[in-house]
Specification:
By secondary structure, the chain is α/β, with parallel strands linked by helices. It is 39% helix and 22% strand. It has 2 domains: 275 residues, Aldehyde Dehydrogenase, Chain A, domain 1; 179 residues, Aldehyde Dehydrogenase, Chain A, domain 2 (3-Layer(aba) Sandwich). Strand 1 and strand 2 form a beta hairpin. Belongs to the aldehyde dehydrogenase family. Its EC number is 1.2.1.16. It is an enzyme of class 1 (oxidoreductase). It holds the Pfam family Aldedh.
């Protein structure tokens, strides 16, 4: 039981180094998705307060950009150390407000910290170049400068990692950041901000604003002072934000909806593929942007794979995230539960067969479910499920499968199991996604670029590419 951790969290917004309540005392309730009990509240900041935050961030930017890169990175390393020291308490807070099992929450805190550690490397910053000159007295230089005031709107499914993945490269580059966390999971964000302050991140450099999503979003996207927006969430909301950013021509990083195919070829190691599917499909109760959506299995191994997957799924333990041995926590809210139920009902009505699971467990969980006889025409295959349902689709022709997958709107991630190198190379070339995992169910790492193509967004987070998103290029011609 982690209730003491909820009582210890900050329940105010963090703006310009100050902890704020709403001017009109409006608040938003935060609940534990496993119990429905209230964990606390956060303020609904007014439009005036959001504008004041943007102004303070701009003032902080012109100070922070002058701090030497080595010192900025040293502050990030200090923040990393603070997070590592507080990892268990942070994980408990995360479990309380998000619902994922404590072991997964610990893993997320470590993952979140890894982004700070990665971007706290001055060597990742572009040091520019001096170009060969055409005439003796002339020199030509290309340098990189920080974009400016940046904003991030982050999701509830990874409330720590989705913040550090955006904030760490921004701060390393010399930018400042205003973060709007998801209303379901603000406490993790506020705890991270408190640790950043203790690590010496100056006032105004990192701000956490809480409030009405539409009002905050419109203030951030409409402000010409905010030069860049980074968003992780649905494709529909991403389109809206992109349109709102158009008048001020903001730079954008959008990590949007996914529909990751998990492909099991006839020559795959079936046991390894089952273990990979368990990781890729059921982590965080299926609520991750790179979750395997539909599982496409070659006809020759379909039955064997299905039987072994069902046996593994039946061993998963449901319960509160703070209970020992739990693998599957609750879905984030009632709307998510209803969506999963609707997708399952539609699939069964269209001929799919429930092999295990298939119904609610208590009022806030959905049993991990395996569907056989699923087809590419079913809604649960065409759309992102974001829940613990694994539809198994039989395929016989790999080229036909690739053609079907290329027709999908999403293009975030894919997983392929095969022991044939030529086949792996073919899938690597022809899958229209930003990331592919071969013979693995886990693909994320701070050192590599994360992002998608088509309707799954634009820009990359992580790797060297992640810091380039926060840098502008300037050319200087100097006559000596």
């Amino acid at each position: 039981m982690f209730e003491s951790d909820a009582n210890a969290v900050r329940q105010q917004a963090y703006v310009n180094g100050q902890w704020l309540v709403a001017e009109d005392q409006r608040e938003q309730t935060v609940v534990n998705p496993a119990t429905g009990e209230t964990l606390g509240t956060v303020p609904l900041l007014s439009g005036v307060q959001i504008e004041a935050c943007i102004e303070a961030a701009e003032r902080a930017f012109y100070r922070w950009r002058e701090v030497p890169a080595r010192e900025r990175c040293a502050r990030l390393l200090a923040w990393y150390e603070q997070i590592r020291a507080a990892r268990e308490q942070l994980a408990r807070i995360l479990t309380l407000e998000q619902g994922k099992p404590y072991a997964e929450a610990l893993g997320e805190i470590d993952y979140a910290a890894s982004y700070i550690h990665w971007f706290a490397q001055p060597s990742l910053l572009d040091t520019g170049a001096t170009l060969p000159f055409a005439e003796e007295p002339l020199s030509m230089m290309v340098i990189s400068e920080p974009v400016g005031v940046c904003a991030a709107i982050t999701p509830w499914n990874f409330p720590a990692a989705m913040i550090t993945r955006k904030v760490a490269p921004a701060l390393a580059a010399g930018c400042v950041m205003i973060v709007k966390p998801a209303p379901d999971t603000p406490f993790t964000a506020l705890a991270l901000a408190e640790l950043a302050a203790e690590a010496g991140i100056p006032a105004g450099v990192l701000n956490i604003v809480t409030g009405d999503a539409q009002e905050v979003g419109e203030r951030l996207t409409g402000s010409p002072t905010v030069r860049k927006l980074s968003f992780t969430g649905s494709t529909a909301v991403g389109r809206t934000l992109m349109a709102q950013c158009a008048p001020t021509l903001k730079r954008l990083s959008l990590e949007l909806g996914g529909n990751a195919p998990f492909i099991v070829c006839a020559d795959a190691d079936i046991d390894a593929a089952v273990q990979g599917a368990m990781l890729a499909k059921f982590r965080n109760a299926g609520q991750t942007c790179v979750c395997a959506n539909a599982i496409y299995v070659a006809d020759e191994v379909y039955q064997a794979f299905a039987e072994k997957l069902v046996a593994q799924v039946k061993q998963l333990k449901l319960g509160r995230g703070d209970e020992e041995g739990v693998n599957i926590g609750p879905l984030i809210n009632r709307a998510a539960l209803q969506k999963v139920e609707g997708l399952l009902a539609a699939a069964v009505a269209s001929g799919a067969t429930v092999q295990c699971g298939g119904e609610r467990w208590s009022e806030r969980w959905f049993q991990p479910t395996v569907l056989t006889d699923a087809t590419s025409a079913m809604q649960c295959v065409r759309e992102e499920i974001f829940g613990p349902i694994a539809p198994l689709v039989r395929f016989t022709d790999e080229q036909d499968l690739l053609t079907q997958l290329r027709a999908q709107e999403a293009g975030l991630a894919a997983y392929v199991y095969s022991q044939n190198l030529e086949k792996i190379q073919r899938f690597a070339r022809h899958l229209e996604v930003g990331m592919v995992g071969f013979n693995t169910g886990i693909i994320s790492d701070a050192a590599v670029p994360f992002g998608g193509v088509k309707a799954s967004g634009m820009g990359r987070e992580g790797g060297r590419q992640g810091i380039e998103e926060y840098l502008e290029t300037k050319y200087i011609k100097l006559n000596n």
